[in-house]
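Section 5.1 Outputs to date
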Amino acid sequence: MKPIKLIKNRSDIGAGTRGSDLGVDAIEIAAINQGSDYFNQFPFEDIKTHNESIYDKNRSTVAKRIEHVVEQCIRLNNSIHKNLKDYFPIVLSGDHSSALGTISGIKSAFPEQNVGVIWIDAHADLHSPYTSPSGNIHGMPLAAALANDNLDSKTNAVDPDTQKYWEDMKQIGYKGPKIQPENLVYFGVRDTEEAEDQQMERLSIRNYKVDEVRYRGLETCVAEALVKLSHCEVLYISFDVDSMDCDLISYGTGTPVAKGFDQYEVIAIIDQIIKTKKVVCIEVVEVNPLLDTKGNKMAETAFQVLEAVTSTLVLPIE
């Protein structure tokens, strides 16, 4: 495989709670405290951020700071597109809105291929400005990647400026949808709104809930998901730490949800997908040390996952 490169994207402007911009550094501190030289083993790139925009007056209540999220996603798109030529990017991001930039960069690097997305998360992130109850864009990256506004579930009036920026988001890197609904699989989604539930049903998006994974068997569920994505030439794994059980692990994330995976289940899911040899990028998001009531526990657990799956990446796959 290509050598690994770490892409550090300390942006949190798509979140509703500040602090995920510190998540990358919290993971690095966790590594240092564990005596690991992980972050000295790989080249890295820092993505410019626009976090000071949190102090701007919000022009849109249905898509907060969308003009700056567009800029951030463009920066990440450009980085991923460039680095995929020579590297396997491992992206460490703040909030999950930037995943739209990562997906865009992958699609722009592989425009003729089907991009499969495995989204390990407590949330579906399928809202658009037309449906979002919060206006936080970290709940919208997949709607933008699918280029689907879910107008059948519209509840919000969207002003022309916001509409323009939203259209810009959907066109980053590659004109039109970056992924197709049948090429998206969820693991662990359990905290959704009605508009997202309706969209998941309309688009027939498969969600392997925690209970199903444990009842049917993790290997069985992942294998089934990989059959569904077998026509995809490249795969992207997005791991939001809130997919893990907040009561078991930590509340150190913007939107913690109980009854999630443990870290060993997440590692096993990602490892099995890596063994397809189709994965071209992995992203870890939403560590927020400011909300962690157990010291740096969420970052420590995220690093445990990161270190384990990196070992799978670098070891020969039989």
